[in-house]
Amino acid sequence: MSSEKPIRRKADSISDEDGKEEVKHLDRVNVASNPNARLANPLEGIPHEQLMADAAAFAKHQGLGHLTEVFKKGALVAQDPLAFESLTYLSEEDKEVLRREVTHKWRQPIQLYYLVILCSMAAAVQGMDEAVINGANLFFQDQFGISLTGPNASQHQWLLGLVNSAPYLCCGLIGSWVSAPMNRYFGRRGTIFISAFVSFVTCVWQGLTNTWWHLFIARFFLGFGIGPKSATVPVYAAECAPPTIRGALVMMWQMWTAFGIMFGYVCDLAFYSVPDKPHVTGLNWRLMLGSAGVPALFIMAQVFLCPESPRWLMGKGRYDKAYESLLRLRNSPLQAARDLYYIHVLLEAEAETFTGRNRLKELFTVPRNRRAALASFIVMFMQQFCGINVIAYYSSSIFTDAGYTNQQALIASWGFGMLNWVFAFPAVWTIDTFGRRNLLLTTFPLMAVFLLMTGFSFFIPAGHAQIGVVALGIYLYTICYSPGEGPVPFTYSAEAFPLYVRDVGMSFATAVLWFFNFVVAFTFPRLLGAFTPQGAFGWYAGWNVFGFFAILLFVPETKSLSLEELDQVFSVPTRVHAAYQMRALPHNIKRHIFRMDVPDLPPLYEHEGAIGEKHYAPGGMGHA
């Protein structure tokens, strides 16, 4: 890339020591030496003649010399994908292929949609693994001697939480971190196959247990099926999808996980009335837990019929296989050659950037990276402490406390799952228009209100009124969660980190997610017993209020920003961003709620306008 375009902020706009040091550094560093900027487009600025010569040498070196002309064209297009109309080297047929990539972006090869089905099914298995325990909770407690009533209720509440949370303990401590070496040695498809096999075996294992501690062990090992799968499938989809529909396909993970949660409740209902057989006690809950393993068999049968990730194959030096893979995933050899060559130069740039660098250390020692890690931590942490998985794992117990029969509680839980899935669809459109931050700031206060509504409804005398208000509160809460805190965390974390630390950043974010998933699932039964439903729901309503302010102060918007603009956003010191947002909050309330005519605030980022000392004079909020 050109070395004439520095990424910097005005030095006079920084007042804190962190910011001063960063500005001194950024004033000396230009795009050529910025790791994130270097990876933004390694082909930028290369003359066309040199670019075609490089592409021809690449094709010959990788045993693809018979495709030299195609790779020359592909390299030219990869340098600036939107400028292909001006390339005289391309034929009219070539240009028409590239035009249709924009005008008919969903007209993709059948093989790509087959891969989408695989990824969607993997997400659904994930949701089922999480949800089927909901119905089983109604039965195995008494059978295993951990009933939540009686003199040992407090101890049993902790044991129930431990059993329910076991997979997420494994994910947070081990499962999310082993995904990187598994992907390195077995590839994306191999990791998905292994995790699906583990899910199948452990689901069957759960149905064969006869003590709470045996069930805990089986569910702990289920974490080795959940953790690597959750870290691998979105990456696999992103590496195989064309850029024009990549975001939508990656978001399918959250949508179809919600579908799997809903279908898990369907299985709970389907096996609810199954009677015990001779020498088999609790056949119904055993079938509930085992049912989640069946879709995993379809993944195992299907995954090796899909192409391997081209990026992984190229990382192993198998360029011919990578090209074959891309031919199956793209509509033309030109598109396959373009993507192959671009991935190649990107891998070379990454190799140069990573040499001698400790990426895990730089995730927290470099201020820009640290702010991205903080923002990702907040959205991942709040996905758990907003209370959604309390309902996902324990809704049947909550509904029975409100006066439902067991079967009615499972039907009501299915309603929750259905709403969680249906209202995830609007996020496909709103997340890139309304924005990640705006979705969160809008929905968190509403989630707090509806959790309070659900908790306070337990003060209503037992009867139909109480039952109706409990269900209404949970359903309204779910409607607010699904398009906001549901899809945003994974999407936000995937784009907030610079490219050169993105892998380790996502491992960190995923580990945070699963660890606090464990905390929530482990503590809720005892929390419910100690606080009563009113206090328990009030507790998570309070966390939603906390989440609103944490996002307001520490989570910048990332929607539709280039890598350079993201650098600028996360280079603004944390204290400056927080102070600006506290000033903007009453301003936005006046403008958007009370419809008052108030003057615009000065912009915070360079890509929105200049930051100057005149905007933030001492005595106001301090220098930016």
Characterize the structure shown:
This protein has 624 residues and is mainly α. The protein has 26 helices and no strands.
Q: What name does CATH use for the topology of the largest domain?
A: Growth Hormone, Chain: A
| Strand segment count | 0
Element-level helix/strand string = HHHHHHHHHHHHHHHHHHHHHHHHHH
How far from one another are the termini? 30 Å
CATH class of the largest domain: Mainly Alpha
What structural class is derived from the secondary structure elements? mainly alpha
Report the β-strand fraction as a percent range. under 5%
Number of helices: 26
**What do the pLDDT scores average to?**
84
Name the helicity range: over 70%
Defining traits:
624 residues, 3 domains, Growth Hormone, Chain: A, transmembrane, transmembrane helix, globular, mainly alpha, Major facilitator superfamily (MFS) profile domain-containing protein, 26 helices
Structure described in brief:
With 624 residues, the protein is mainly alpha-helical. Helices cover 71% and strands 0% of the residues. It has three domains: 109-306, MFS general substrate transporter like domains (Growth Hormone, Chain: A, Up-down Bundle), CATH 1.20.1250; 360-562, Growth Hormone, Chain: A (Up-down Bundle), CATH 1.20.1250.20; 564-608, no CATH class.
